[in-house]
Specification:
This protein is an alpha/beta fold and about 450 residues long. The chain has helices spanning about 15-30, 55-75, 85-95, 95-100, 115-125, 140, 150-155, 175-180, 185-200, 225-235, 255-265, 280-285, 290-305, 325-335, 355, 365-385, and strands at about 5-10, 35, 45-50, 80-85, 105-110, 130, 155-160, 165, 185, 205-210, 240-245, 270, 310-315, 340-345, 395-400, 405-410, 415-420, 430-440, 440-445. A six-stranded parallel beta sheet has the order 2-1-3-4-5-6, with helices on both faces. The chain has a five-stranded mixed β-barrel with strand order 15-16-17-19-18. It has a three-stranded parallel beta sheet with strand order 7-10-11, with helices on both faces. Helix 11 packs parallel to helix 13. The chain starts with a strand and ends in a 15-residue tail after the last strand. About 45% of the residues are buried. Mean pLDDT is about 90; it is low at about 455. The structure holds iron/sulfur cluster (SF4). Iron/sulfur cluster (SF4) binds near residues 168, 173, 176 and 210. Iron/sulfur cluster (SF4) binds next to helix 8.
């Protein structure tokens, strides 16, 4: 019998890439590849790249320098290592990657990973292979399903891609160019995937997509279904206790999706809803297609639908043309809403996007100073939210053993890590926990007597 070949996949960026990396491993498993966490042990190294952060391509080239040295060391021992670059940087850079990093054997975009076995064969035959097409066939139809053992090894919380690509064309974002236009998977296929996950012990599923609430996949009746309808279908699957979805666009928060937050008990009371700026002038320059008032209106409806809903968001500081007045509008929006956390970044130009061509770029020093002010406010809001959890009881899904003996770590409904002294038999289970201590952004608690389903809700406003 042949020795298994070892695969090392390094994921950069978002949950979508983590999901894609896992599906790549699933696709290669029937070819005899097993995953390793040690890159110097691997026969195939895949860098699954992300184009969102600043200098993304440069970071990939410097990582490739390290991987090239591993390849050279293996070659000195008579062992062949194949290097592949996948994901959004691969899509954007294409052949340029092989020109600048000749040790790379294969470059492929996010829409091609279901063809990995064929692409590897092509790279072996021709020396190099590049595939950055947007093929018409549905890659999800060609992906091998992970085994029950693999699902169990990955834990009780899983991501499932339901939608890819984006048609919004925000002027700072590369996603519409690297991932293409919006495509939604059919309901039936998503339900089948979640059922397989549930059978293998998964208890929490996060439906993911670049613009997930624009979901419009074909339903069982042959007609397009909304994300709310999809959530209802998935919610009916036995064994799944918790549902989440990310990342959403404010404009696609339809009334039926807002109502799902009221009606679906399994849908967790936490929503990531990027706003990016509090200034209408900047929102227009970003081509966000919503105003500050639109965002506030959606938040009001969501909070009316579910009083314990906690909101997180994304902010870009120093978008071209942002004045002190525009930035003050962002700070004001943050105070008005009260978030339980947020990601915030300085604007940095992405080649090929309209924002990169704008003439009124903001000075780096000004961006840094504004970002520090925004992050200080968000940190205060996060602390305030966490402090309000003290003494409350809520359901925790236990995911893994803690650092200390007898301790388990789980997630609250609001995604906070919670450490609890609890028997190992609770791993993979949902149990009621009373929060007894807050340290930094970690919560500590004890098992509660309250029936898990009847816990007090947490007011979400700041
Ligand atoms: S909605 Fe999101 S993914 Fe789409 S272009 Fe805007 S920022 Fe990018």
């Amino acid at each position: 019998m042949n020795e298994p070949r070892k695969l090392f996949v390094k994921s950069f960026g978002c949950q979508m890439n983590v999901y894609d990396s896992r599906r790549m491993a699933d696709t290669l498993a029937p070819q005899g590849y097993v995953e390793t966490s040690a890159p110097d042990d691997a026969d195939l190294v895949i860098l699954n790249t992300c184009h969102i952060r600043e200098k993304a391509a440069e970071k990939v080239y410097s990582e490739l320098g390290r991987v090239r040295r591993l390849k050279e060391a293996a070659a000195a021992e008579g062992r062949r290592v194949v290097i592949a670059v996948a994901g959004c940087v691969a899509q954007a850079e294409g052949k340029e990657i092989i020109r600048r990093a000749p040790a790379v054997d294969l470059v492929f975009g996010p829409q091609s990973y279901h063809r990995l076995p064929q692409l590897l064969a092509r790279a072996e035959r021709d020396g190099k292979a590049v595939d950055t097409e947007f093929p018409l066939d549905d890659k999800f139809d060609h992906l091998a399903a992970p085994s029950g053992a693999t699902i169990r090894m990955r834990g009780v919380s899983a991501f499932v891609t339901v939608q890819e690509g984006c048609d919004k064309f925000c002027t700072f974002c590369v996603v519409p160019y690297t991932r293409g236009s919006e495509v939604s998977r059919p309901v039936q296929k998503i339900v089948a995937e979640v059922e397989r996950l549930a059978d293998a012990g998964v208890r929490e599923v996060t439906l993911i997509g670049q613009n997930v609430n624009a979901y419009h996949g074909e339903g069982l009746n042959g007609r397009p279904q909304s994300l709310a309808q999809l959530l209802e279908e998935v919610s009916a699957i036995d064994g799944i206790d918790r549902l989440r979805y990310t990342t959403s666009h404010p404009r696609d928060m339809s009334d039926d999706l807002i109502a799902a937050h009221r009606d679906l008990r399994k849908l967790m009371p936490q929503l990531h809803l990027p706003v990016q700026s509090g200034s209408d002038r900047i929102l227009a320059a970003m081509n966000r297609r919503h105003t500050r008032a639109d965002y506030l209106d959606v938040v009001e409806k969501l909070r009316a639908a579910r009083t314990d809903l906690a909101l997180t968001s994304d902010f870009i500081v120093g978008f071209p043309g942002e004045s002190e007045e525009d930035f003050a509008a962002t700070l004001d929006l943050v105070s008005e809403i009260g978030f339980s956390g947020a990601f915030s970044f300085k604007y940095s130009a992405r080649p090929g996007t309209p924002g990169a061509e704008m003439s009124d770029q903001v000075d780096e020093d000004v961006k840094s100073e504004r970002l520090a002010r925004l992050q200080a406010e968000i940190d205060l809001q996060q602390q305030s939210f966490n402090n309000r959890c003290l003494g409350r009881s809520f359901e925790v899904l236990f995911e893994k053993p803690g650092r200390h003996a007898g301790q388990l770590v789980g997630r609250s409904p609001y995604l906070q890590p919670v450490q609890v002294t609890a028997p190992a038999s609770l791993l993979g289970e949902v149990a009621a926990v009373t929060i007894t201590e807050i340290a930094s952004n970690s919560l500590f608690g004890t098992l509660a007597q309250t029936p898990a389903r009847e816990l007090a809700v947490l007011g979400a406003g700041a």
